[in-house]
Amino acid sequence: xxxxxxxxxxxxxxxxxxxxxxYWTEPARRYPVLYFLHGAPDSPLDVTYPAxxxxxxxxxxxxxxxxxxxxxxxxDQNTAAGAQNWETFxxxxxxxxxDDNLRTVANRRGRAVAGISMGGFGAMHYAQRRxxxxxxxxxxxxxxxxxxxxxDLRLAVVASLTNAPGGFCxxxxxxxxxxxxxxxxxxxxxxxxxxxxPVFNIxxxxxxxxxxxxxxxxxxTGISIYTGSGGGSPLALEFWIEGANKHARDSLNALGLPxxxxxxxxxxxxxxxxxxxxxxxxWAQDLVDYVPRLEQAFAAG
Length: 301
Hints:
The protein is α/β, with parallel strands linked by helices. Helices cover 30% and strands 15% of the residues. It has an eight-stranded mixed β-sheet with strand order 1-2-4-3-5-6-7-8, sandwiched between helices.
């Protein structure tokens, strides 16, 4: 773990680095890198999934994304939260830092980005914004449809900004699903992408950041999507996440792009503890499936 400061984002930020076991005993070997993006309102300290630690063939880097940074450069940099240029921090500072200081495969075919929940959005957002950086992308229960048709997800993002009930939160290892007081300081609902309301195109920045609307930018990228159903209850966050992921899948089908999609419904048969909800037990099983597939893709170049 290293702690860094940058003018791009207020405060100090931990970056977790997981090295394969033979990194120090094979000094001539270079390793591909998975950038793994945590969810809201967690930090790299909460990312403890066994599948990430078990890999012997890749480096995993977990950068801090803030409790609700949304892996984006915020429209408003003058809020009580201070500077919030997360995209610039990660893509223009963290990645070069890792490549300069570790023995990485420092090109697109040796670099992947994946994430859970808020981090699933971030992974798709980064892969679409900078396709030259990442050869593989994966979203695990990601909010990857921010269109007006998925207004419930937009409002959940807004709740995380304003520290209101209903914030975009999962039952992560650190919160148990309780986000009360985690999204502070409260900022304006317009701080991230401007107004979220679809009136006279004032939600333009939301549409520009919507992953489902820009799947064509992932042509030539390995795409993986995982989602549960939340038990089919409209009161469950994963219910709305499933709908968002299906919209993204429809976009990929319309474009004729290849992808890997796992809809595990209520979690039956998906590991031993997944209940189909928006929680760490399901994401742990997602990674049991995803990490070996990613290692194979890296090995194939």
